[in-house]
Design brief:
Blueprint lengths: L52 E2 L8 H4 L5 E2 L6 E5 L4 E4 L3 E4 L12 E4 L12 E6 L2 E6 L6 E4 L6 E2 L6 E3 L4 E4 L2 E5 L1
Parallel strand pairs: 5-6
Antiparallel strand pairs: 1-2, 3-4, 3-13, 5-7, 7-8, 8-11, 9-10, 9-12, 12-13
C-alpha cells in the first residue's frame, strides 16, 4: 500500500485525495432582524397641549365655590441656562443632546443639539442627554467613553450610570470628560 522508500500511497489517486472541507462555510450570510424602535426621549411640540395632570383639591369651602377652582393644571416648561467651561452659554427649555457632534437616532426627536468645542476629543460625539420632568432638569449619560460626573451643591461628586436619569437642581456642575457646564 505504501512505498518503502518515500512513504507515499501506491493506491491513492488525485481524485481520492480530494475530500470535502469539514469546516463550516464562513461566507454564510446570517439574516439579521431589524432593530425594534426604542424611544428614549420625545419632546412635546408647543402646538399640542401637554398631558394634563389631575390635582386633588382639598378645601373646607362650601361646594358652590369649588366649581370655580381648576380641575387640572397644565405643566410648564422652565428655562435653564447651561454655562460651559468653554465660555458658551445656552438657554434650554426642552430636551436635547450634548457632545462634540451630537446626533439623534432615527426614531428620536430633540429640541436642542448642543455642540461642545473639545480639541482633545475627550467628550464623546453624543455624550449626554438632557430634558425636563415637572419643571425639573435631568441628565442621562449616553454610554460615553469618558463618563459623566455630577457635583450637586453641598454634596459629593457622583459618577453617572449610563442610561439612568438624574434630576439636578440649579447650581449643579456637570463634568463631561475634560469639559463641564453648570446649570442655572
Amino acid at each position: 500500500m505504501f512505498c518503502g522508500e518515500c512513504g507515499s500511497s501506491r493506491t491513492a489517486t488525485v481524485e481520492s485525495r480530494k475530500r470535502p472541507d469539514p469546516r463550516p462555510n464562513d461566507t454564510t450570510i446570517i439574516a439579521r432582524l431589524p432593530r425594534a424602535p426604542a424611544v428614549i426621549s420625545v419632546s412635546i411640540p408647543a402646538e399640542v397641549p401637554a398631558p394634563v395632570r389631575a390635582v386633588a383639591v382639598v378645601s373646607a369651602a362650601p361646594p358652590a365655590s369649588r366649581a370655580a377652582l381648576p380641575a387640572a393644571v397644565m405643566p410648564t416648561r422652565a428655562t435653564f441656562v447651561l454655562t460651559f467651561s468653554t465660555g458658551q452659554r445656552v438657554s434650554v427649555q426642552g430636551s436635547g443632546l450634548i457632545g462634540r457632534k451630537p446626533l439623534a437616532q432615527p426614531d428620536e426627536i430633540f429640541d436642542e443639539l448642543i455642540r461642545v468645542a473639545d480639541a482633545d476629543r475627550s467628550v464623546s460625539k453624543t455624550h449626554l442627554e438632557f430634558g425636563q420632568h415637572d419643571g425639573e432638569f435631568w441628565v442621562s449619560d449616553r454610554v460615553s467613553g469618558n463618563g459623566t460626573v455630577i457635583r450637586r451643591p453641598g454634596e459629593t461628586a457622583e459618577a453617572l450610570e449610563p442610561g439612568r436619569r438624574y434630576v439636578l437642581p440649579r447650581g449643579t456642575r456637570v463634568e463631561i470628560a475634560d469639559q463641564s457646564f453648570s446649570i442655572s
